[in-house]
Structure formats: structure tokens, C-alpha cells
Amino acid sequence: MAIIRTKSFSTACPTISSCDIDLYDTPEKLLQFVNNQGIVPVPLDVIKLAEKININVEYVDLADDLSGELFKDPETDHWFINVNRKHHVNRQRYTIAHEIAHFCLHRHLKYRFEDEIFFRGGESDDKEEMEANNFASFILIPEQELKSKIRSGIRKIEELAEIFEVSTLALRIRVKSLGMSGHGL
Question: How distant, in Å, are the alpha carbons of 28, 30, 85, 123, 171 from that of 136?
């Protein structure tokens, strides 16, 4: 008599290396991974997230107009994010989220992404950059958490930006993308 064994799969992965990164090709799926890993979503610990998906983050000196870069080491096949150490901490957080977005969405297209200061106006003609911007703002400022903060009475852009640890411009663009308006909220 033959015995058939089935594999048992865990719902939580210690790191992305034991999971399929293609399962995290949307911000919703990546936020579910964040929750499964016990990473606090607000403010999102982007360093811990990068670590969980096996991307090394390094703060380095870059040209003032370069926010960061994502690249794959051809010798080790390992991915790295370099972040401009001279930029504001909120800019650095956004840069890391943006580079994680490139990794999740575009790593099969090329092995290097260099990002000049982006999201200053929220607009770009480059489809990949817009996708990465939208993905980054979604994971840094999740809609449900944002609406929850607003319902609790927090309506000033500056206060919300501080809670999510993003720039006021990033928050304004996210709020606008969700169809909200007002000087405060």
C-alpha cells in the first residue's frame, strides 16, 4: 500500500527567501505580509520590511539630487538599497518604500534603479516611477489606517504626516489620490 504525504505550508514566512516574492506584487499583498510578520504598519518599519524580503539597506553619500538606488549584485544575486544619508529621515523612508516597490514590481525588468528626487509633485511620465510612487505611498499611508486616524479627529495634514512619518507633500498627494480634500481634512 502506498502512502501519500502532503506538504504542510505555514501561513507566515520568516523571510521572503522561503516564500515567493511574486506573491507580493501589490501593496495590499505586501501589507498582508507585513501584518503576518508582526511588523507595525503605522509608521511602517521600512528597514524591517526590507530585511524580511532580503534586501540590504545602506545609508551612503549620493549626489544631492539622487534619493536612492536599488540594485542586484551580479556576483551574489543579492539586492541592495542605497539611501542618500544627507536627505531628511522622512525622505529616506519614502525612498526605501519606493525602492521596495521597484523590487516587488519591476525587478524582472532590470537589475538597477536610480531614482532622482521623486514625488516632489507626484507626477512623472515614467510608468515604472509612477507605479513605484503609488505603491510606496500605499504601504506608507494605508487607506484604512489613514481614515481611522481622520475619524478619530486627527485632521491636520502636519499631524497626520507626523504619525505616518512622511512629508506633508507625500500625505497631501495620498489624500488627494483617495478623493479627499480640504485645507486640513
Answer: 11, 11, 19, 14, 12
